[in-house]
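Here is the promised in-class demo. Please do not try to memorize the tokens; focus on the logic of going from shape to residues.
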């Protein structure tokens, strides 16, 4: 059986402008949603506001508080963004990633912005 060669259109446009890379990222990820992340959450939205990419998660577990989600997001969002070469390069070039959470037992929505990688 012959291996299928990836279509050039499906390749991340690493050499394109940051605006084009943000659009590509949002379009490709959006086509995969909703996506179960864990038993407690699902990623169900992605949108862009200029060069900011918002990733929206719905928390399914009513026993999880806003403070727990905020603590988790502040601890994990930087590495989720900055440990990935593609997204880190986008941030260094001016993009930002906003991780937003709502649902279940959250007393208030939670949002964490990553707009720089060291």
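The designed amino acids, position by position:
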């Amino acid at each position: 059986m012959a291996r299928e060669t990836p279509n050039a259109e499906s390749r991340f446009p690493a050499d394109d402008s940051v605006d084009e890379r943000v659009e590509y990222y949002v379009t490709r990820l959006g086509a995969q949603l909703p996506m179960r992340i864990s038993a407690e959450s699902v990623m169900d939205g992605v949108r862009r506001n200029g060069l900011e990419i918002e990733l929206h998660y719905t928390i399914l577990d009513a026993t999880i508080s806003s403070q727990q989600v905020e603590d988790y997001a502040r601890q994990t969002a930087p590495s989720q963004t900055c440990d990935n070469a593609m997204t880190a390069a986008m941030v260094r070039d001016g993009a930002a990633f906003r991780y937003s959470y709502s649902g279940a037992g959250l007393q208030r929505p939670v949002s964490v912005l990553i707009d720089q990688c060291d």
